[in-house]
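Technical note accompanying the year-one report. For the benefit of new consortium partners, we illustrate the data format agreed upon in the data management plan: each record pairs a sequence with a structure-token string. No post-processing was applied to the example shown here.
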Amino acid sequence: MSNQLVENLLRPPVELYSAIAYGLLALLSVMAPSYLMMTPVVAVACASALFVLSVKRMTQGFKIIRYQHGLKRISPYILKDKNIPVSNLKLFLGLGFLWDQRHAQRLADLNRKDGRAYKEQSKLYLWARSFELKHEKHAWFVLYLRSVTTFINFLDRFKWFLPFRLLKWIFLNSPLANLPPVGGEPSLHAVGLYEGERPVSMNLADRVGHTLVLGTTRVGKTRLAELLITQDIYRGDVVIVFDPKGDADLLIRMYGAARKAGRLDNFYCFHLGFPQLSARYNPVASFTRITEVANRIAQSLPGEGQSAAFKDFVWRYVNVIAQAMNGLGRKVDYEMIREYGQNIEPLVRDYMTMLAERYDPDGYQAKVKWIQDAFKDQDNKKYRIAREMSNRDHAVIALWQYCKEEELFDAIASSLSRTFEYDRGYYDKLVSSLLPLMDKLTSGKTSELLSPDYMDQDDERPIFDWATVIRTKSIVYVGLDALTDGEVAGAVGNSMFADLTSLAGRKYKHGVDSGLPDTIDFKDTKVNIHADEFNELIGEEFIPMLNKAGGAGYQVTAYTQTWSDVEARLNNKAKAGQVAGNFNSMIMLRVRETATAEMFTEQLREVEIDHLMTVSGATDSSDIDNDLHFISKTEQRITTQQSQLIHPNDFVSLPKGQAFALLDGGKPYKIRLPLTDPADLEDLPSNLSAMSVEMRERYNSSEDWYQYTPSFDEASIRHSLTKHRSMEGA
């Protein structure tokens, strides 16, 4: 069949007819060789040859049946954690095949009028669904459904027994059985089942070029993330997961994989929605240049139109505060920036005191006191307080005046002085957009989370930074609680990305062990960053992470719904294109936006699609003397036309859990993602258990096609959560 000019898989399996004929002849040759006038030896040889031909034709016939069956339904693909292939060379994605012209041809044949019957469900199936809707509330029907579920679970327990496995397959694939709730067109994957599926993987060497995963909500992005993250954890790499919406299953899977891999000692859970249970992190404590602190805070403020000027004022104000705190040897955090943002005088006093004590530790206080007393003398014009500084503390003004007269100012003191000289009320208006953001970042328990007290030994919540995470090959889950407060989630997420980008530059230039004794040797490692819903996190700092951090071993896998979300976030189509250009691999699940699908299809060349056309005609003869009165003719013609290898509309019809992927330098693959087995869920410690239960209640983020079956007692977890809340309230 493969040698035919036109492949025809939409037909009856005629191979079975010849297989039956060959089989009967083989049986006759053995049972009654005399009827065929053959000796016993010749009969055995002929029967063997006929049996081989019968098996060959039967195999070909069953391939046609399997292909046509798969056009209407595909069995679920569930994979246990222990069976996930983990390699140091490949990253497993699922089962699938390389998409080429053959599959585009088969899809075109199915979409023609003659192929409709092979895609539509049978009348028996439609009747069964109608019957279910009519009787779904009857007690006897509910009992029947429970019996069916019990029977299938019974067969599944003994799936090692081949007859039971075959019986389960027949039961689930009968015309009466319901289809899995995945929707879409099964034929998009079935067109490759004729040759069969194989494991599809991408080279780990290609991950440094970053991977983009696109798909609308509840089609399997998070389930794909679980598969990739599990492999990264088992491989021993650094794993950092950003989860803005809060998916409880993702957290549970990460914890279970870390436990099985023996890496629980290096597992951190950071969640803005549960500060009392979360690890702690200071987003502005680590930097290569001090100006990065101002960048991380100011980038969360609006910068369009007239807001741009105020954003620049905020940047300068925060930069002055950060430089002064760094000069004083203090740890920079949100709490102190908010404190000095409201009143910079204590910072000016502390910094000027440091300069004065360096210059004249014993005599400066008397001089400052003399200047402060001189302010009261109305005749002393030299020490008259300017009108714009009249609402400042006179003691601080005197200290500032002393340092100015003695020319003790350095660059930081000069910047502080220019800020201090402004009218306080006027300057507060210029930086008014800073304080609401800082109040959100430092309110309640969030303050302890983002501005940790390093000296508080009674607080058992761990504190982490990215350098330590990379050195210890840790696993970090970052829940940003974006559904509750998107502004705070964006600010913290952007700061984390900026911190990681800064560390990438330091790591690229000096290595991960920069600043440590030479006796300590840390082996360099890959850093796998998974950013779910990354359109909510992306900012200016994300672009250098993509195009420059590869040399530091950063491997970013970004997940989002449509590319328009990224363009809207960046508010610049050129920058969005710059981001897209840094993703060398792309995995696209079902999308609802044609422009997003065209990001994939425009990278593929067109192919020729064959079309078999039947032409009939007749010609009359007007010659009465000719015995030939008419000529009729029927012929088949094969024409070709250019067509897209994959049409953008095909992405709209993808079933849940299926995707197209551009791998290995632009080769298109069709893949079927494995569903994780609910039986693999691990028991969590009390704090994470309480967190996961409340995440399910508050976010409800699990895809509906992945049915969660807990392997632990949720009732006890809810009890522990209630107890924890009561203790917290007390």
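Partners are asked to follow this layout when depositing records. The chain is about 45% helix and 15% strand.
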